[in-house]
Amino acid sequence: MGDSEGSVRGVLAANLKRVRAERGLSLSELSRRAGIGKATLSQLESGTGNPTLETVFGLARVLGVPISDLVDGAPTGGVTVVRAADVEALSGAGVDLRPLRRIESGDSVFEIYDQQVRPGGTQDSAGHSGTEHTVVQAGRLGVRVNGCDVELGPGDYVGFDATLPHAYTALGGEVVRSVLLLHFRAEQRLHVADPHDG
User: Fold this and answer.
1) Domain of 154: which CATH number?
2) Do residues 70 and 150 share a domain?
3) Most buried residue, 29, 47, 121, 169, by CB count within 10 Å?
């Protein structure tokens, strides 16, 4: 997809500027809070940066918004079909995450992702807002949540408080295909965290 307004880069650029302005944060202040270089943030806001999974999750955490507030375009009505080949992946150290759908219901936001965990790497997260749900479709997935390890196979499910430190690892040398559902309640979206505040 290139750098068009419909690409992940283009959508992130527009949404990041909007959310940062709504929060009343300067580029410098967001850079400080998120631990991301000001030049990198400037590139992301101009649509020329290369957003990683870690960067997008980190920005969402600091801004106090669901990930889809940053990477989703305008919602559409009627029947929604999302082709995997048409969705750019956000890639991290061990995971490729394709945002498929954002659903708003009452005071909740649900985000649905196609998640592929690559062998040979681990995707670590220090934690972010929301509740995380994963259903494995193919392969064997190692999940660590706050020091507790579980192993999942096809059809298995795990759910946990996403504010806890967690990690995903593909076991057995093959890609793990899974569906990731993130659930955010209204109260989880309101707090803007500043790790430097005492």
Assistant:
1) 2.60.120.10
2) no
3) 169
32 and 89 in a single domain? The answer is no
What is the chain's mean pLDDT, rounded? 85
**For residues 101 and 134, which has the higher predicted lDDT (pLDDT)?**
134
DSSP track, the chain: -TTSTTSHHHHHHHHHHHHHHHHT--HHHHHHHHT--HHHHHHHHHT-S---HHHHHHHHHHHT--THHHH------S-----GGGSPPEE-SSEEEEEEEEEEETTEEEEEEEEEEPTT-EEEE---SSEEEEEEEESEEEEEETTEEEEE-TT-EEEEETTS-EEEEEETTSPEEEEEEEEEEHHHHH----TT--
Q: How many folded domains does the chain comprise?
A: 2
CATH of the domain at 16: 1.10.260.40
Give the residue numbers spanning the domain of 119.
84-188
